[in-house]
Amino acid sequence: MSKTFKGLYIGGQWVSTSTQFDDLNPSDGSVWATVPNASLTETAMAIQAAQDAFAGWAALPFQKRSHYMIKIAEVIERRKNDLVEALRFEGGGWIGKGMFESGYVPEVFYAAAASNYAAMGEVLPSENNKFSLAVRRPMGVITCISPWNFPAILTSRGMAFALAAGNTVVLKPSEETPYTGGLFFAEVFEEAGVPAGVLNVITCSRERVQPIGDELIDHPAIKGITFTGSTPVGRGIAARAGAHLKKACVELGGKDSLIICDDADMDRALKAANFGSFMHQGQICMSVEKVLVHQNIFDAFLKGFVERAGKLKMGDPSKDPGCIIGPLINDKQAARVKEQIDDALAKGAKIALGGGVNGRFVEPTILLNVTRDMKVYKDETFGPVVPVIPFATDEQAIAIANDTEYGLSSGVITRDESRGLAIANRLDTGMCHINCSSVNDEPHVPFGGAKASGLGRHGGRWSHETFTETRWITLDRGGRPYPPQF
Questions:
Q1: Which of 264, 341, 405, 465 could disulfide-link to 269, CB 3.0 to 4.6 Å?
Q2: Catalytic amino acids?
């Protein structure tokens, strides 16, 4: 029997809807849950509830908002097992991925609580002996639109710091993960006793995403938008927000490279490549999508990479906790990945491992002889498929890594830290990790990309800057003179 939920979460109340939609287990297509299907009417109610709650929430002493963030984290910690199970069934994730995600999410709220104790402005010099301040204040109602791949982490990252700063939120999770990215948080906030209207959760089917998404940007009460997802959708959201002169923080796709130098620790390089390429079936914005290997160690690396990746067990993680490689989220994504494999093979690529596609299940796939004219070289894959490409010099590796419209993350494996830093400083990415994979995140760091990988930063004080306005306030203590004509 599938799960049912109490309704949408609006103004601290559970609101029923006239229609529902099916939330599928991507492993077998079975209905895992029946989810409320919001309309524009409920969306307007949620925005109004957030607007009504804003003044009171923003006026709370900063430490009280932080205390609520801590309560939220504690509830999530108590409900860790519930979240792990839901991530396996709703998102098709390996149990280890669910355990990581459920452990990470409380840390986001703890970090958000801590952010309120940091400096909130500056004292500026003044030519007229004024007491001159640059201060920050919350913006108002923030729309958070979260994705399906790491729904709990990316929802919490999108809203925790905004809430701690005094904003209120309307959350619309992906229709693929409406519980782990949405209604789960409604349950948590209710249990934590967060005031009504501070968080409002709207879930809707794919057919209603466009009009509801537009309303969550266009409505005059919405002051900012945070979105994590694909670059095409993010471009549209940022453009629409810009037309209204609203701030948008969008973290988008990637085509991230892992550069393995000839002096690399081979075991470290193999672990970084295997984890970075195939964790959660490559459905991570920071996934390694090109492994660039120095020609002097190419054969040794490839042999070890094929051996390691070949040991990753594929299957239904909702039935077998030992399955590390689960399904892609839906048929559309599986078809996209298969198209990239077929295109590469038609243009001369060779398969070193895998290549099989069975429904939503794609084998861990390693490709050779990949060239610039192939889709797998230039387009984001978001699946367990990775080219391994040789290079002769660091200059060549940098050029290949930068040969993409994306610029999210990257990794460099070398025993020479100076060499690693020199390469990192020339990569056109928002993040780079030396002697680690491109897949890295911490709640307090500046997370975000360059080029087509997004605008703005999440994490720590950078989230605080994203979701607050800067104001200049002065106290005239020096008697600023006016022209005598006045």
A1: 264
A2: 251, 285
